[in-house]
Amino acid sequence: FFFFFFLLSTFPLAMKLNVSFPPNATQKLFDFEDVAKVRPFFEKRMAAEVSADCLGDEWKGYILRITGGNDKQGFPMRQGVLSNKRVRLLMSKGHSGFRPRRTGERKKKSIRGCIVDSDLSVLSCVIVKKGDNDIAGLTDCTRPRRLGPKRASKIKKFFNLSKEDDVKKYVIRRTISKEGKKDTTKAPKIQRLVTPRRVARKKSELATKKANRDRQQKLADEYATNLAKLLKERADARHRRHNSSRKSESKA
Length: 252
Fold this sequence. Notes:
- By secondary structure, the chain is an alpha+beta fold.
- It has helices at 2-10, 35-38, 152-159, 196-251, and strands at 15-21, 26-32, 49-51, 63-71, 86-91, 107-112, 120-129, 174-176, 184-186.
- The strands form three sheets. Strands 2-1-7-4-3 form a five-stranded mixed β-sheet.
- The protein is elongated, with a radius of gyration of 36 Å.
């Protein structure tokens, strides 16, 4: 029994490659039973580019970039941790892989280093350079975008519009079909759209800020004038008291 587990720990099991192809918005999971095929990925760091010729003839000419992975217990790889083992780090808000439940909470969490090793079960990669042959389900098909752009600037960029064009006429609508009901369409609400109401509100806000700034400056000038007048009156009074005391001493 113990010898069986010793063999499992000595000889690595199969590894899966989760490969994505961003131009076609596709990804596919490949299971490699022969560890010798994925051995060139070992001892490589995240963000390293590796030739995929070792994976088979259909991968000839492809270059993959390592983006991450998970070990057999599900712990993710972390960029910047120069280790091929699992380590514990003190994490706080803003660190990937940690979601604080309380304000200011910090906690030690286990993560995998950024160096690829045989302990990984899934390795995530991105195709940087496409080879001569197409890979079924990955590079030979295109996954269309389900939703169109929502922000006004991105709609203008998507359709190459000018400032004079009406953005509202170029919103991509999608049809919703339900059995026994009439087809309906949905469109997103355009974000950051510059409308006459928005321009008027912006002008009003700027005018209010300018009026407040002018009022504060006027109050500051009045305060400075009154303070100078008060200091002058106090100085004159002090000077008069000093002169009167000198006259009384001379008479005595």
